[in-house]
Amino acid sequence: MDVAMATAVAVAIAAQLYISPIPEISTIKVLNTYFFANAIVLTSILLSSSKIIPSFARIIILNIIFLLTFITLTLIRRLYFSPLSSFPGPKLAALSNLYKANAYRTGRGAKVLLELHKKYNSDIVRVGPNELSIRNVDAVEKIYKGKYPRGTFYEVGAINGAYNLNTQRNYDIHTPWRRIWERAFVSYEFKDYNPRVEYHVSKFIEVIRKTDGKEVNVEKLLENLVFDIMADLSFAHDAGMQDGKGDNEYMGFTHKYMFAVGVIAALRPLCQLLPLLPEAADVKDFRVRGEVLLANRQKLGTSRKDIFSHLLSPDPISSKILNQKDLNSNANLIVVAGSDTTISTTTQILRILAKEKRVLKKLQDEIDRVVREGKELTVQTTTNSSYLNAVVNEGLRLCNPLPTGVYAGTYPQGVTVAGSFIPGNVQVMVPHLALMTDERYFPKGWEFIPERWTGEWSEGVRERRAFIPFGYGVHSCVGKQLALNEMRLTIAMVVREFDVMLGESYDEERWEAEWKDHAVLQIGKLWVHFVKRR
Ligand code: HEM
């Protein structure tokens, strides 16, 4: 080994020390330094030699030596010398984020986390070089309190060039945005939204009536319903999905977009390079559709009462206003957050009602009582139905649309959770599926027992703080009330008129296989019969 080669090894060791603190330094900085150093070395070799080809060959050899040393040291450090080395978890996960990206690619993200907590019999498992999954209620308040650092996962916001409310990690920007968003969901705004939700849900019931008891994929019908509501309340747009004249491809693009988000978000270096790369066709298709919806909505100004009348108005405290780029990214957020979440949860609840005749019958009895009292089924009259709320809660617990949960970074001083110290700047998440099925907090955690929420079986909820279907803290779901209104009314109106039965095409194995956690849950077709009640 000559002096230059020994220097390449020494530089690799120095570079390793440079990137070793948690969080690892940004990929852009590492690449800039790498290419800059290469340029200097190449120039000095060329200056000292007149032969071009041997000079290039030499620099390639030096690079190979550098990279091999650097990568080997990175793997050794991640495995044995990281502050997270003491946490149990798969070695492959400790070595590379590819482990987690692959879990999202296969759609098994949250299930993988659940299996790891069981396998290692530990509340905390290491799921990435700089990432821990925590299955303990103690973590909820400690991790998500105050303006907690958001996980690096949300750097994926750059996938289409701009951050939205959910991916915005800078609180100087998130806080005024959040105030603007919250104004769209204060209780008095619902007097304008509720009649429109009721209108679309009645159409949904009409569509079901027309199936005349024949087998139907209700997931698609709910997709149409929820999309119509979302388009109407957000963009003043008649999407016409329930009338059979809408853009049937839109949700397909949304799903492809979310698939890309899940995988890329798990690969932080790639996230950081995204703005420099050409936009993927699927992402573009999704983005442009949202921008067209928004452009049409903007022509109506702020007089039309809907969610965008608020997003187009300034924050009253800071007077900040969303610029066009921010509006575009937030428009696309509404499409994802406001549709897939409610579609998958409601579909899964209907599946459970089709399987659990006892629950369906009890729910029908409650809704029948509301009607017998002379009340029409509306958002308002279904708000306080206790068993209905319990069914929805149980659905949100077991069938949560964000089963992996929300990504945070630990505060720089670190945090002690469930008796273990976690260093600062580590990405952590409290996985919704694993937490909300934990027997310590919800006995018979995998069973659908609404009575745990009605007081009839109060031992069924041992730890209310572990129920976080809408997240916790400053980034928790801003559309919660709308989601609950939609789900309650839809379920109430369906069970009032119909019995729900699984169809012949329904296949339990296929259903399980089509359950895909791509950061936001995607589910398969649900074949059912809606049989008119006598
Ligand atoms: C079953 C239905 C729903 C569930 C379970 C749900 C759940 C959640 C969760 C867990 C978060 C936190 C995500 C995070 O911190 O990264 C969230 C955020 C959000 N949700 Fe929902 N959601 C639902 C429906 C809706 C609807 C109908 C809207 C309407 C537009 C909506 C809008 C949002 C927005 C804008 C955020 C981002 C808030 C922020 O980062 O400050 N969600 N939701």
Layout: helices, strands, pairs:
Elements: H1 3-19, H2 27-48, H3 52-81, H4 91-95, H5 98-105, H6 109-119, E1 124-128, E2 131-134, H7 138-143, H8 171-183, H9 190-211, E3 216-217, H10 218-235, H11 250-265, H12 268-273, H13 281-298, H14 307-311, H15 324-355, H16 357-372, H17 379-382, H18 386-398, E4 407-409, E5 415-417, E6 420-422, E7 427-429, H19 432-436, H20 451-454, H21 480-497, E8 498-502, H22 508-513, E9 516-518, E10 520-522, E11 527-532
Parallel strand pairs: 2-7
Antiparallel strand pairs: 1-2, 3-11, 4-7, 5-6, 8-11, 9-10
Helix pairs in contact: 1-3, 2-3, 5-11, 9-10, 9-21, 10-15, 11-13, 13-15, 15-18, 15-21, 16-18, 16-21
Biggest beta sheet summary: 4 strands, mixed
Uncertain spans: none
CATH superfamily of the largest domain: Cytochrome P450
Shape, per Cα inertia axes = globular
Number of β-strand runs: 11
Task: Kindly provide the radius of gyration, computed on alpha-carbon positions and rounded to a whole number of angstroms.
Answer: 26 Å
Q: Any idea what the CATH architecture of the largest domain is?
A: Orthogonal Bundle
- What is the highest CATH level, the class of the largest domain? Mainly Alpha
Which strand order does the major sheet show? 1-2-7-4
- Indicate how many domains the architecture comprises: 2
Q: Distance between termini? A: 88 Å
CATH fold annotation of the largest domain: Cytochrome p450
Small molecules bound in the structure, each named once? protoporphyrin IX containing FE
In helices, the fraction of residues equals 55-70%
Helix count from the secondary structure assignment: 22
- Give the rounded overall mean pLDDT: 93
DSSP strand content: 5-15%
User: What structural class should be given to the helix and strand makeup?
Assistant: alpha+beta
